[in-house]
């Protein structure tokens, strides 16, 4: 497969979706760097697993090792300080009056993309990769395709650049995300995502399930578990590893 000779910067949280997107980028670009954000999230265990995941990818996937470059960590504590959400405060998950769950952190993905673009500008990179999906848009409007396209336009106009924001998971549900990981890195990548990544909003690393660690009761655990079961039941469905969105 012919890879893009450019450099991609992957927004890498340490969760299932961003780990899958990192593998997708490593398969599609000659050089890949990663960026993470510490915004005071309650489930900050996701930040703790990031170095482990990066080390394992370098160790277990030699074909990707030489393409995986620097990791950038950005302190965005101010976002947690100004946000009143279930991810930044010790409150129960609930629906807001506008119908969105209070796990939605307003402005989060928009700020992340803005900071990622600033780093990419410095690097001379034009490709940004983010693991958003419209299957999440019922709770997260900044995961919508239109929102990402609008952000890409704003960044290009405001920075006089031609950034391309890639969203490999935009039209994929969790089952299809598992299938993409399987296609990209086989059983080894699927196992690494199960054991190494973290998506649970409760930050639970004590309870191990077939799909990975988590409380098993939060929104993300339910989505991940349901996707895993569906993936296991239709493993033979092919997914194109090179598909670009």
Describe it.
The mean pLDDT is 89. The chain starts with a strand and ends in a 12-residue tail after the last helix. The strands form 2 sheets. Strands 3-2-1-4-5 form a 5-stranded parallel beta sheet, sandwiched between helices. The chain has a two-stranded antiparallel sheet with strand order 6-7. The chain has one domain (4-233): 3-Layer(aba) Sandwich (Rossmann fold). The chain is an alpha/beta fold. It has 8 helices and 7 strands, in the order E-H-E-H-H-E-H-H-E-H-E-H-E-E-H.
Summed up, the helix count is 8
CATH superfamily: HUPs
Give the biggest beta sheet: 5 strands, parallel
Helix content: 40-55%
The average pLDDT score comes to 89
Morphology call:
globular
Kindly state the number of beta strands: 7
Record the SSE blueprint.
Elements: E1 4-11, H1 16-28, E2 29-38, H2 45-60, H3 62-65, E3 68-75, H4 77-82, H5 108-123, E4 127-129, H6 145-159, E5 164-166, H7 174-196, E6 208-209, E7 212-213, H8 219-233
Parallel strand pairs: 1-2, 1-4, 2-3, 4-5
Antiparallel strand pairs: 6-7
């Amino acid at each position: 497969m012919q890879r893009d000779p450019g450099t991609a910067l992957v927004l890498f949280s340490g969760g299932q979706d961003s780990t899958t997107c990192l593998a997708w980028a490593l398969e599609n670009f000659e050089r890949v760097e990663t960026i993470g954000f510490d915004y005071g999230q309650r489930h900050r265990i996701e930040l703790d697993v990031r170095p482990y995941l990066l080390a394992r990818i370098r160790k277990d996937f030699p074909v990707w090792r030489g393409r995986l470059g620097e990791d950038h960590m950005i302190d965005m504590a101010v976002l947690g300080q100004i946000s009143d959400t279930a991810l930044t405060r010790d409150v129960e998950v609930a629906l807001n009056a506008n119908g969105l769950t209070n796990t939605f952190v307003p402005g989060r993905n928009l700020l992340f993309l803005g900071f990622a673009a600033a780093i990419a500008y410095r690097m001379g990179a034009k490709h940004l990769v983010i693991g958003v999906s419209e299957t999440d848009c019922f709770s997260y409007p900044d995961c919508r395709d239109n929102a990402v396209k609008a952000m890409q336009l704003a960044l290009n106009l405001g920075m006089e650049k031609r950034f391309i924001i890639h969203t490999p998971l935009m039209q994929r549900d969790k089952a299809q995300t598992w299938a993409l990981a399987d296609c990209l890195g086989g059983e080894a990548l699927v196992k690494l995502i199960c054991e190494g990544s973290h998506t649970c909003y409760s930050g639970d690393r004590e309870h191990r399930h077939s799909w990975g660690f988590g409380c098993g009761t939060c929104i993300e655990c339910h989505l991940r578990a349901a996707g895993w079961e569906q993936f296991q039941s239709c493993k033979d469905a092919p997914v194109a590893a090179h598909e670009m969105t």
